Amino acid sequence: MRAVLWFAGLLVAAFLLAPILAILPLSFSAGSFLFYPLPGLSLRWYRDFFGSDFWLPALWNSLLIGGAAAGLATLLGVPAAFGLWRLRGAMRAVAMGVVLAPMVVPVIVVAVALLLAFGPIGLVATHAGMVVAHATLGVPFVVVTVLASLEAFDPVQLRAAAACGAGPVRAFFRVCLPQIAPGVAAGAVFAFATSLDEVVVALFIAGPAQRTLPRQMFAGLNDSISLTTAAAAAMLVGLSVLLLLVVGWLQRRRPR
Fold it and tell me: How much is the average pLDDT of 225-249?
């Protein structure tokens, strides 16, 4: 039975990874079209990426917006997770539903709602609007990850800190936060990855100056199919793998 489960798991993994593994070699193709076998190997598409006036600014926009959105999502998500952890009863279920709504609601619905909300206050086609929008999508991931870390935290330690004269804020920063720090960092990484991969919201509220890498890839596929898009996809895959390794390292550092 165990061998059957392993075999089924490997089939599912192969099904999910096959499209990714198929596109990666094309980024090193010496030809100009998406076809196999490769006519040769070349780094021309990576040189085209880093020498382009469109692709490189899009990459910097993605990193800048993703980093700021991850920071904002962490600042909002950690207190929200701590508050949910202290809540009990029906109120916790209601609050969880509200906080996790951006994770379960279709992204197109969130994008339209953000467009209608940001338009009157001038946040459309601005970096600040993109940061707030991507932070909204990243907060649920921070909340879920931090809640998982808090489940291993003994609340008696907070009462002990209070008995020693520490206020609630000081007790949180001196006693609780150091123990859940790996979960907080993992949540920030997930929020950054969510921003890095997001394209639907960017299509709705980003202007030409806020074009992110996924949106540039989408536009490139609409204008003309170039293997520079494959090079951009390969770099996104590499960055995603790096983020997964960071999350795995942080999970191993979590206290048991």
Answer: 81
Span 102-122, average pLDDT: 88
168 cis-preceded (ω within 30 degrees of 0): no
CA dihedral 19, 23, 24, 29 (to 10 degrees): 160
pLDDT in tens, 35-73: 777 787 888 888 888 887 888 888 899 999 999 999 999
Q: What single string gives the DSSP state of each residue in the chain?
A: -HHHHHHHHHHHHHHHHHHHHHHTGGGGBSSSSS-SS-S-B--HHHHHHHT-TTHHHHHHHHHHHHHHHHHHHHHHHHHHHHHHHH--THHHHHHHHHHTHHHHS-HHHHHHHHHHHHTTTT-TTSHHHHHHHHHHHHHHHHHHHHHHHHTTS-THHHHHHHHTT--HHHHIIIIIHHHHHHHHHHHHHHHHHHHHH--HHHHHH--GGG--HHHHHHHHHHH---HHHHHHHHHHHHHHHHHHHHHHHHHHHS--
* Dihedral sign for Cα atoms in the order 77, 81, 87, 88: positive
